[in-house]
Amino acid sequence: MTQEEKQLLLKELCVRLPYGVRISLTETERDASASEFSYRDGRFLTGILYAVYPQENRVIIDELSEPIAQYNVRCGGFDIDECNVRPYLRLMSSMTDKEREEWADLFNLELDKLNEIDDEDKAEELAPYYFGKSHQVSIDWLNAHHFDYRCLIPKGLALEAPEGMYKAE
Fold first, then answer.
1. Parallel, antiparallel, or unpaired: how do β-strands 76-79 and 83-89 relate?
2. What is the rounded radius of gyration, in angstroms, for the C-alpha atoms of the chain?
3. Taking the CB of the first residue and of the last residue of the chain, which one, N or C, has fewer CB atoms within 10 A?
């Protein structure tokens, strides 16, 4: 993984932290005796992202699919340089019609507020605020629904979430 890819992945993991994103991780090829946890020898584990430490290139994964062998715990810290850490995300093309309408409504709400302003000069002055706020709300919505709007799946930095992994709330 290049440094740029690592930074993109860490940034992505940080913004998705509040939304319970599921993670897949596999140990990359290295000396197994150097492993802090010696877990599952090259096979994969899944769990929910619990914490991200960008300065240390580490993540904490909770609710692991199997306990970490020697400690018998379901939570552990993993170095992204030593483990292949990838979030499960949904393709944008998997958005349902209902989700598409909901997402579009986020923009319309802000535009309607802007159109209510009578004074044209005031409207121009406030436009960047409303569009900026609308954009932030939209990105939050995409994160909460686990969509891959940064195209991490084709880059190999994320996995396509199986259908039904993230139940509609």
1. unpaired
2. 20
3. C
